[in-house]
Amino acid sequence: MIGNKGKRLNQYINDYVVFDLETTGIRPHTDEIIEISAIRVREHKAAEEFSTLVNPGMHIPAAASRVNHITDDMVEEAPPLFEALGDFLEFAGNDILVGHNIHSFDLNFIHQGAMRLYGVIVENDYIDTLYMARQYLPELSHHKLSDVAAYFDISTAGAHRALNDCIMNQKCYEELGKILVQRRKTQPEILCPKCGAEMVKRSGKFGEFYGCSDYPRCRGTRKIG
Description:
Layout: E1 8-9, E2 16-23, E3 33-42, E4 45-53, H1 62-68, H2 72-75, H3 81-92, E5 97-99, H4 102-118, E6 126-128, H5 129-136, H6 145-151, H7 162-186, E7 199-204, E8 207-212, E9 221-222
Parallel strand pairs: 1-6, 2-5, 5-6
Antiparallel strand pairs: 2-3, 3-4, 7-8, 8-9
Helix pairs in contact: 3-4, 5-7, 6-7
C-alpha cells in the first residue's frame, strides 16, 4: 500500500464526496486509471455528479475489460490522466471521501497519480464502507459492494462502471450510517489518543484491548475498563 495521508474515519456525515475508479489492473505503480466517477452529497442527498473515462496511454487488458466493460476504443478520445485526475481533485475539494475498499485500492491510485503528475499529496480524510460493512454486517459471508447492496435491497444494475458503483455505494453508506447511529447510542465512540481515529476492540495474548482502527499506520492502544 502506498499510504493514505488522510485519516480513515468511521462516521455518518451529512456532506461528502463518494467516488470510484476503474483501472487496467490492481497495481498502482504499473496499472492505470481508465474511469473516475464521483457524486457530491449534501445533507445526505446527491447534489452533483462527476464522471469521465480516462485514456491510459496503454492497452486495456482483456481481463480488465471483462470486469468493467471498458475497451480501448471507448477511451481513445478520452482525456489523459493529467487532465482527468486534476478535474476530479478540484471536484472533491476538501470534502471527506467515501468509497468501498478505497483504503487498500482506489486511494492508492489517487495518491500515486497525484504525486507523479503534480507532486502533491492528497490529504482528504475518508470513510471506507468496506470496513463499515464488516463491522456492522458480520452476518454476511462476503462484503463486496454488490453483497452489501443486495442486503439493503439496493439495485446492482450496471455494477463495475464507476458512476453506477458511486450511486450504489452512496445508498449503502446511508444505510450503514443509520446502523452506526443506532450502535453509538449503546456503544459510544472511543477515539485513539494518538491520532484521533476510532478505536475498535481487539484480542491479544493478554486479553482484549482497544486498538486504533487506522492500524498499522497508527499503533495507538488503550486498556478496556
